[in-house]
Design a protein that fits this description.
Elements (H helix, E strand, L loop, with lengths): L17 E12 L2 E9 L10 E2 L2 E3 L7 H4 L10 H5 L5 H19 L4 E3 L4 H11 L9 H7 L3 E3 L5 E7 L8 E9 L13 E7 L1 H10 L6 H10 L5 H8 L11 E3 L6 E3 L14 H4 L12 E5 L2 E5 L2
Parallel strand pairs: 1-8
Antiparallel strand pairs: 1-2, 1-4, 2-3, 2-9, 5-6, 7-8, 10-11, 11-12, 12-13
Helix pairs in contact: 6-7
Length: 307
């Protein structure tokens, strides 16, 4: 599979990033921690053909905090404490609502519930999603206001804050949230923005990426590498109980004739002038599990490389 990535070649002002939410869905299968990944369609503007977590940009209605306050499963005053940290009230609700909305739209997992909910309630909403007309623009509002569903903000936890490199034509200011797969639901990818979905362990995902079988976007690649340090779901749940957003991660993209290279903020040369030696790149590709601060687009696959 060949993944095409367009890089700006001029020095004009970087495009303003759009706010977005991404959800890292986690489950444990046979004692093995797994994540859910979606393969983007070839026509996607950002990382076409790559495997990513469910997510998307924030819609105008997602930030209507006065509406959503009455339809979340926690005291609205506690929402900023759980999901905030440098965010306004409207921003906190916007990222949270967008996370729940996009997870259902792309993966078919609804992080919401209804009082005295029956199996038929969820089946009906899922059938609505997969109908020929699909979900309309304000489906989430209708679900909570007209049908009495409650958004499960308690299922969301902070993981990371990524901003797309400045030279990328499509840029996003994205909050990566984590949620553990709710019981009684299955991931069912849509057939519009995505092609297929897979549950996979971080180890398998990283190995598949290096082989070119599961091409990962750079943030997905790094997230799977981070998850290697959690051998079971219990330790991961403990980690996210108090995990802050941390500093915004703004990678630096360096155009190169042999494929662009991304320097992560922790790279020792991140703030320095740097020349990439094309003769060394292929020899510097790192195996899964090795720490890295650079990724190289080699033959359509983003691969970790050594300094």
């Amino acid at each position: 599979m060949v993944v095409c990535v367009t890089v700006k070649k001029d020095s004009t002002r970087p495009k303003e990033p759009r706010r977005a939410s991404t959800v890292i869905l986690i489950r444990e299968e046979g004692g093995v921690l797994q994540v859910f990944l979606l393969e983007r369609s070839g026509g996607s503007g950002s990382f076409p053909g790559n495997y990513v977590f469910p997510g998307g940009t924030i819609d105008p209605g997602d930030g209507n905090s006065e509406l959503w306050k009455a339809h979340v499963d926690m005291d609205p005053k506690e929402v900023p404490r759980r999901l905030g940290g440098g965010l306004s009230e409207e921003e906190v609700f916007a990222f949270g609502v967008a996370a729940i909305r996009e997870t259902f739209e792309e993966a078919g997992v609804l992080l919401a519930y209804r009082s005295e909910q029956t199996k038929g309630d969820l089946e009906r909403v899922c059938e609505w999603r997969m109908s020929t007309t699909g979900l309309h623009k304000d489906w989430a509002r209708e679900l909570v206001v007209s049908e009495g569903w409650t958004l499960a903000f308690t299922m969301l936890a902070r993981w990371a804050h990524w901003i797309t490199p400045e030279l990328m034509p499509y840029r996003f200011d994205t909050r990566f949230l984590m949620a553990f797969m709710p019981r009684g639901q299955e991931c069912v990818p849509d057939t519009r923005e995505t092609k297929q979905g897979i549950w996979i362990s971080p180890e398998e995902g990283l190995a598949g990426n290096l082989k070119g079988e599961i091409p990962l976007s750079p943030p997905t690649l790094i997230t799977l590498h981070e998850l290697l340090q959690y051998p079971d779901i219990g330790k991961l749940k403990k980690e996210v109980q108090s995990r802050p957003w941390g500093e915004a991660l703004l990678p630096r993209l360096i155009p190169h004739s042999q494929g662009p290279v991304i320097l992560e903020p922790w790279d020792p040369m991140y703030h320095e002038e740097i020349e990439i030696d094309p003769e060394r790149l292929a020899d510097c590709i790192l195996p899964p599990g090795e720490p890295f601060s650079r990724v190289w687009l080699h033959k359509g696959i983003w691969k970790p490389v050594g300094v």
